[in-house]
Automatic annotation (TrEMBL):
CATSPERD/E C-terminal domain mapped to chain residues: 539-755
Span of domain CATSPERD Ig-like: 390-509
Protein's name in the database: Cation channel sperm-associated auxiliary subunit delta
Cellular localization per UniProt: Cell projection, Cilium, Flagellum membrane
Similarity field: Belongs to the CATSPERD family.
Described purpose of this protein according to its UniProt entry: Auxiliary component of the CatSper complex, a complex involved in sperm cell hyperactivation. Sperm cell hyperactivation is needed for sperm motility which is essential late in the preparation of sperm for fertilization. Required for CATSPER1 stability before intraflagellar transport and/or incorporation of the CatSper complex channel into the flagellar membrane.
Residue stretches spanning the membrane: 719-745
GO CC annotation terms, alphabetical: CatSper complex; sperm principal piece
Keyword Cytoplasm: no
Membrane topology field: Single-pass type I membrane protein
Signal peptide positions (record): 1-20
CATSPERD beta-propeller domain mapped to chain residues: 43-370
Species, as recorded: Mustela putorius furo
UniProtKB keywords: Cell membrane, Cell projection, Cilium, Developmental protein, Differentiation, Disulfide bond, Flagellum, Glycoprotein, Membrane, Signal, Spermatogenesis, Transmembrane, Transmembrane helix
Encoding gene (name): CATSPERD
Amino acid sequence: MLVLLLVAATTLRLCLLARAQPLCRNHIVRTGKVFHIRQQIQGDQLYFSSPRTQLIKHPCKKNVALYLGRQVFFTTDNFRSSLFPLCIPAALKVGTPELTSAHIADSVLVLVVNQKVYIYDYEANSWNTSLGIERPVSHVSGDNCCYSRHPFCVDMSNSVFAYLYGDQISQTTVYFSNTRGYKFQKFAYERQAELVGSLGGTFYFHSLSQVGLLLIDQGKAWFSYSEHPLNSSFGLPFDYNGTLGILITPGQKGILIFWFEKSLLVSRNSGQLVYPVHVREGPNTLYSSISEANVTIHSVAANENELAVLTQENSLYYGSLGILSSSLIKFAGQNICTQDAALMFTDVGRVEILTPIPDLMFPAFDFQKCSVNIQAILMDPQFEVDVCKVELLEGEFDSKMYTIDMNSKLELTALMIPRPGKSLIPLAMVSNPHSLGLQAIIYEDGYTYDGNTKHRMNISLKQQHHWGRADPSFTSSIKRPTGSTITLDVANKEISCVDLKPLTAFISVGCDQEKKIVIQNEISACQNNILDPVGLQDNYSYVIERDAYDPNFQGQKALEDLVVQYEYEKLGCPSLVYWNNPWKPVVELWREGKFQEVIETEFVLLEVHGLFTYTYSLTAQTALCKAQPQNWTTIMETASDRGPFAWDRENYVSCHDPDNEAPLRWPNVPYQILGGPTANKVIFDQRNGIYVFYISIVDPYYSYCHLETTFSIYVHGAFPLSVILAAATIIPLVAVMLLSVWLAYAIPKLLHTEKGLKFKGFWIYLCRKCRKACACFRGRC
Ligand SMILES: *[C@@H]1O[C@H](CO)[C@@H](O)[C@H](O)[C@H]1NC(C)=O
Ligand SMILES: *[C@@H]1O[C@H](CO)[C@@H](O)[C@H](O)[C@H]1NC(C)=O
Ligand SMILES: *[C@@H]1O[C@H](CO)[C@@H](O)[C@H](O)[C@H]1NC(C)=O
Ligand SMILES: *[C@@H]1O[C@H](CO)[C@@H](O)[C@H](O)[C@H]1NC(C)=O
Ligand SMILES: *[C@@H]1O[C@H](CO)[C@@H](O)[C@H](O)[C@H]1NC(C)=O
Ligand SMILES: *[C@@H]1O[C@H](CO)[C@@H](O)[C@H](O)[C@H]1NC(C)=O
Ligand SMILES: *[C@@H]1O[C@H](CO)[C@@H](O)[C@H](O)[C@H]1NC(C)=O
């Protein structure tokens, strides 16, 4: 930062105070009063508790904004028409309609009025009292994700905190909602009782995948974070003067702005380091903070990359929130600051000072707007600002969201063109480097084109691989998906590069929803004419005999036979498995409908109807387990609330894991995990029939997704035991003839039952054995 300040100091030749022209020109919005009279809501007119105005813009919907001042205004057309002040319906009986805090969560306003939380859904035009908050609260906080409609992004917009500012942190109750504030529950912060100081705020820092509590004690403040690896450390303390308002800038880059009348601080890493903003008031005057510059802040506005401040001294200050710079430049104005004035960005490099004006004739207010074009002001020769040395910075990835699952990587490319003869320093910043183990490597390749050097850049991102032995400063909880942003910027760019915004993408390190598993079905029972595909599709059912299954999956025989409807739509034709071959399904990973690889890692199987006529080739001992392996029985005991199919990557613990301390007490129990380091296989009992298996990939290091599916197999080739006995006592040829005659009569009746399948399997076996000797019904077998 020091380097940059020096650069800025040598390149800026500002002569700011000598401007003759006004900073901006006023115009007044006065529309919709006669023709579009909106019915004013009967209710209590809200007012904002703070003497400083605030303007909250919806980061994703550019025309939606909330003005907080002596009146409260809500607009969906960016204040392009006159408005009634916002009222809360009398039916909600709020008492004093004093608004202390507000947040826009997607399509609802979350408002704290008289220490309670109310919701106004502006699309449905309905008000609700939020549920679950038992104690008084003063503030709400939240963030909106505009990158995509991916569930990870939607969840961010739905998360809201409610808390009481200034309460003793060790005993206060913080509330969290993942329903945009409709319903709250108590937020459990692990070490809350040990923390000292009072509560300055609770925020979900999505750029860091952490919840941060701001603690205030004796004029200093610092953040405490909820998750590993930051859970054991605090952010660095900073001066806390007055009651700081905290602004989370849009875009999840981890930029926070703290402000009060006499202080303005900024953090670029979700509060881990917080610095005062420097103030430049002419070529040779640089103050290290707002209080040193002796100005009083009235209103603050920020967008993804810019910051603007309106002071009571009628000055406007502007600064870039680039990766490195953090100083403001002063533009003098005249009479721009009144008690009701508020500041907002309408676009990149465009600031508007907005003032509501009452109308004596109508209850609706008009709006005075004063628009400032920052780029145009800086171009004024009087400012002597160096021209921006970057001509172009562009990349396909800007404003997009990507997913990196385990074992995958992401390549982003960008193009940077400097002005002829200038050189640029590209810089990529990852907002969540330590806890993700994300590495961004810039490969730069310059080439000359039309006398210009262009820079093509590849940014390679991947998640550090762990196997539990990663750098301890990376997230150890690989079971929890996290997020981060990556921003590409030019480190040494000038203040005049107003329109040249950094490129930012959001990266979700988590489940890639396009991933699916598919069980290879190379030899299906239909291809071999063992099962009839037409019959299977026609409401086919089969019987599982009562001594072969347990509806409770405990291996106990059932009391009655089970009739199973075969779900052909879902399962297709079963694949064919010969009973006497040890078997393991071949599991394939597919992504976006394309085959990726055969999955070799650990998975488990369970027959969905409770068939237990199979076991495993290995035992805990022969699988070389160091600890007692888990099995379906132990999983069902511990996760009873999730039903029987609860074995997944979240609760799987390998018996080969050196940290697994369960003693190996029963070495001879079957080892129920397939794949991974062992050659374990399934061994079938001597029984023909359809098995429908649930399969779940349990290796936590393979993917963040819960990869699971169901599939069916047909086990064939086993002699039904009773038939073997009969066949041994009768002369084989006679038996075959008799059976042939009988089958010709019985098969049409039997084919649709489990027994029929059994006989059919047996018949196929016999046919193969004596194909030449007997004239078998070829058409059938
Ligand atoms: C909001 O309140 C209305 C009645 O006032 C109720 O019908 C509706 O279910 C509530 N909505 C939610 C999400 O609680
Ligand atoms: C931080 O989290 C890690 C992993 O969840 C845990 O082992 C550690 O004890 C936690 N530290 C504190 C101070 O709570
Ligand atoms: C906070 O106040 C102290 C003393 O009043 C002052 O020294 C310090 O610079 C102030 N800090 C900020 C960030 O304004
Ligand atoms: C700060 O400004 C006020 C009013 O503008 C002035 O009275 C005061 O002397 C100034 N203080 C310093 C230290 O410049
Ligand atoms: C960047 O990626 C592109 C396409 O993936 C490749 O052609 C180019 O060689 C790469 N450049 C560098 C410097 O790695
Ligand atoms: C399918 O079979 C079940 C019972 O075997 C019967 O209740 C149902 O009506 C049948 N459905 C069709 C479409 O044939
Ligand atoms: C499951 O494991 C437990 C020990 O953890 C063992 O007592 C039990 O017999 C096992 N069950 C099966 C079906 O192997």
